[in-house]
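Hi R.,

Here are the chain sequences for the assembly we discussed:
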Amino acid sequence: MACLASHRSGESSNQRVLPTWWPSKRGPRVLSEKAAEPAVETQLAASHISKYFGGNKVLDDVSLNVRKGEVVSIIGPSGAGKSTFLRCINFLEVPYEGSVSLDTLTISVVNGKLRNSGKELAALRRKVGMVFQSFNLFPHLTAQRNITLPQERVLGRSRREAEQRALNLLRRVGLEAKAHSYPSQCSGGQQQRVAIARALALDPQVMLFDEPTSALDPEVGTEVLAVMRQLAEEGMTMLVVTHEMRFAQNVSDRVLVMVDGRIIEEGSPDIVLMAPQQERTRQFLKAVLRE
Amino acid sequence: MWHIFTIIGPGAANTVLLTSISFAFGAVLAIPVTLATRSSFLLLRGVGRGLVEFVRSIPVLVWLFIVFFGLPQEGLSPSPLVAAIATLSVVSAVYLSEIYRGGIAAIDRGQWEASRALGFGRLDTGSRIVGPQVLRVVLPPVATYGIGLLKDSALASTIGVVELTYRANTETQLTGKGLTVDIIVGIIYLLIGLPLAVISRHVDSRLRAKFSLT
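And here is the predicted structure of the full complex:
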């Protein structure tokens, strides 16, 4: 714990501070129609998600509400269902049961069957950006084309507009010079930053990160984490599955601990990481921080 | 010797015509066959796989005979060239579909996941993301199959398509100089096949230099 605390004090000036324009840029607050919902504006709601692999219950009735601009880190031992949960949010994995709401759109699954059309599903995915552990850039396209093609095909933007957007984003992730390089000519960290730019180009309302730095060596991972931190500071709603305890500590508003397909503990990073209530969380943190 | 060359040589026109048209039809027809064998509908998948096994389990020569000598019994009398093109098109569609299927299986599933996560439709995923990558993977085996088809086209001589082998056979029967004639016809096949091999190598190495997969 001591080492974690020192990171914190060393980086406290970098702590996530929302810019002053943040609340106003969110537009007029829509009054919730359902009386039961909390007063804070929920951006993304995943409700009662269950998922089985074979006979194994990998997600056991998991629910999560994420506020606009909130950064949520999901930590926990491997095999706990963290990635599966994230992948259920944009239905890369179809859960057995549960629903996901974003904006006015709700996609639900009952008994493993989607209750919505493919069109509605595509609409949800369009609003949710995803960054993978293995980057998954399209190897036959240049960095720039990786970013422009989805804009043109999915949002119907013109080539010019898409290229303008791509260049802006590449500049933002510090990779202007790599615009015409193929993924195989980029380092892992560069590829992941291009992948982030590709997802951002579609103007997502929520960004999902599935262990974005796990395939990178620590030094290169830092470049990626810096981009993510910047994104968080700009007010992006983010859901991050991570093993980077420093990121969870310094950048996120909330940390969830997942074990055996359930969220066993959640709260502000200070409480969850510094003074966890659950014995299982303490055990996990002890193992992780010993490294 | 040059004399024999000038007599057999013109047969190359039909050999090239038969091979290239059958290959082109086959390469296109193989796409729906591949999609059928990968379909999530059991029935479609069954039909696709059944077709593949059925066609490739029977010798090409037998298929040629069925189409050329068999169809007239049902009132259809294709010319030798048409019968040969039809047969070789279907046969190559089946073999090429297996090559395509292998190529699709070689693509990382993360490519599909990224496409879905970005909101691409199935058509765009196939034509813009997975298709071009499959093309690169299958180029060498497809070129190999094309050269194989060039040689298989010699079978069409048995149903009377006047191509290289047919002309060589007649010339042998007329002159009795089987060795000379067959060496010459072999050289002609080589001269047609070699450029194909060289071109495909060239294209493959250029694509490889441009991007590597995963």
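Chain A touches chain B at residues 90, 92, 122-123, 125-126, 128-130, 132, 134, 136-140, 149-150, 153-154, 182-184, 198-199, 202 (CB under 8 Å). Residues 58 and 261 of chain A are 5 Å apart (CA to CA).

Let me know if anything looks off.

Best,
T.
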